[in-house]
Specification:
Residues 24-91 form the RNA polymerase sigma-70 region domain. With 179 residues, this protein is mainly alpha-helical. It folds into two domains: 1-89, Rna Polymerase Sigma Factor, Chain: A (Orthogonal Bundle), CATH 1.10.1740.10; 129-176, Winged helix-like DNA-binding domain superfamily/Winged helix DNA-binding domain (Arc Repressor Mutant, subunit A, Orthogonal Bundle), CATH 1.10.10.10. It is built from nine helices and no strands. The N and C termini lie far apart (89 Å).
Length: 179
């Protein structure tokens, strides 16, 4: 069926012509049903949607303006919009909200964040008790990941001396953290 024929049928439906409505249904139902079925993916729901589409067409035929667009596109838009409305109505918003609670939050909870900050402050306080060069060596070794040899080269001390510095510094940090 051509757009002009559909446009004429819609115009007659707007005047309340039941025969034109039946002809419009016979000519356009397969296409509109396919649209509903493609969106809803359920034959029963698509059939119900199609009924509502034709009710809407009967009620809104007067609002169709032939000059504003093609009549098949107008019909397809009604079918598409009605199907999307039904699709949205399938799952209540409450179900969506309930499922949100099941999502895992990757962030630590407020209590864990507070504990972590407190431990960080304690470590900073204990680091201040170390000699400045020892504190820098510990940070570079255990935060930045530098090797003992790299640290020994940076500080200009023998490798075994650097190992001793780090070992003694870690012992002092442990004593401080246990207080």
């Amino acid at each position: 069926m051509q757009g002009d024929e559909i446009k004429d049928l819609i115009g007659r439906v707007a005047l309340g012509d039941r025969m034109a409505f039946a002809a419009l249904y016979n000519q356009t139902a397969p296409k509109l049903f396919a649209i509903c079925l493609r969106i809803l993916k359920d034959r029963t729901e698509a059939e119900e949607a199609l009924q509502e589409v034709y009710i809407s067409i009967w009620q809104r035929a007067r609002s169709f303006q032939a000059a504003s667009g093609s009549s098949p596109a107008w019909l397809a838009a009604i079918a598409r919009n009605r199907s999307i409305d039904l699709l949205r109505a399938r799952k209540p918003v409450a179900d969506e909200l309930d499922s949100v609670y099941d999502l895992a939050d990757s962030e630590p909870d407020p209590e864990r964040q507070t504990v972590t900050k407190d431990e960080g402050r304690r470590i900073d306080t204990c680091m201040e008790e170390l000699e400045a060069d020892r504190a820098v060596a510990v940070k570079r070794a255990y935060v930045e990941g530098l090797s003992y040899q790299e640290l020994a080269d940076q500080f200009g001390v023998p490798l075994n001396t650097m190992r001793t510095w780090l070992r003694r510094s870690l012992l002092k940090l442990r004593e401080c953290m246990e207080r």
